[in-house]
Design brief:
Low-confidence stretches: none
Number of domains: 2
CATH topology of the largest domain: Rossmann fold
Structural class: alpha/beta
Shape: globular
Order of helices and strands: EHHEHEHEEHEHEHEEEHE
CATH superfamily of the largest domain: HUPs
């Protein structure tokens, strides 16, 4: 997804040293976790980020990377603040945990970050590492998904992709706005960008559940969703699509407001 003319990457690590996890805090008190140890942990994190920064910059001459270590706020708040301050174009979250049964254990919610910042958020699991993005699931509604299409244009520059456009059965396709949106999508993707596009209508009350099941069935590489209406699986646990993907999943979820 790196543009041909290069990009700037900011690496962020949030050092957990405070009371964001009360049990961890008391355990550290019992162990005598001193400020000296805190500084040592931060220095170690900075060293690891610098090594990663060097690896990234060595891959392409037109990529610049910067590293940041912060502490004091929650992980999610730190990401929101840093991305907003930098004016980031994209936030990338790497998640190896799989809290599908107990999502309350999650400390970061990609859809919430996307909603609060207005910045697209890409969530990837270890299984997606070094995988090319070829097959993309794109749900649409009555509004033309301008931001989603912009992302697709950026991805197309380095990949031979195909798009699976999704319309939901509870969205009346006969409505003029939805019908026009579908026609515009085909005109833009297939006509102007020469991207292979297919269309399917899916059934189900919960859009996120339907998208998750369909993406698995076609072995999709990416799902581009609107945060909230297309990411929440509902229920008391407030689960999200990324919570249900196992660590070995190759599918990445891109939340675009």
């Amino acid at each position: 997804m790196v543009p041909a003319d290069g990009c700037v990457i900011h690496l962020l690590h949030v050092q957990q040293i405070g009371t964001s996890n009360i049990l961890r805090y008391f355990m550290r008190l019992l162990k005598g976790y001193s400020w000296k140890q805190v500084k040592a942990a931060i220095k170690d994190s900075e060293g690891q980020l610098e090594a990663l920064k060097s690896d990234i910059e060595s891959t392409r001459s037109n990529i610049r990377a910067y590293s940041h270590v912060c502490y004091g706020d929650s992980i999610e708040d730190s990401i929101i603040k840093k991305a907003s301050n930098l004016g980031a174009d994209l936030i990338v979250l790497g998640k190896s945990s799989h809290h599908s049964r107990f999502p309350q254990l999650n400390t970061v919610f990609p859809s919430r970050i996307a909603q609060l910042t207005g910045i697209p958020v890409l969530t990837a699991k270890p299984g997606s590492r070094d995988k090319e993005i070829k097959k993309i699931v794109l749900p649409i509604n009555a509004e033309f998904p301008t931001n989603k299409v912009s992302i697709i244009k950026a991805i197309q520059g380095r990949n031979q992709i195909q798009i699976q456009v999704i319309i939901f059965s509870n969205d009346n396709i006969r409505k003029p706005f939805l019908k026009q949106s579908l026609l515009d999508i085909f005109e833009t993707l297939k006509g102007q960008l020469a991207i292979p596009v297919k269309y399917i209508r899916l059934h189900g009350e919960n859009k996120a559940k339907v998208l998750l099941a369909y993406s698995k069935s076609i072995d999709a590489d990416m799902v581009i969703v609107h945060p909230g209406s297309e990411t929440s699986l509902g229920g008391w646990a407030n689960r999200h699509i990324s919570d249900m993907l196992p660590a070995e999943s190759k599918t990445v979820v891109l939340a675009v407001r």
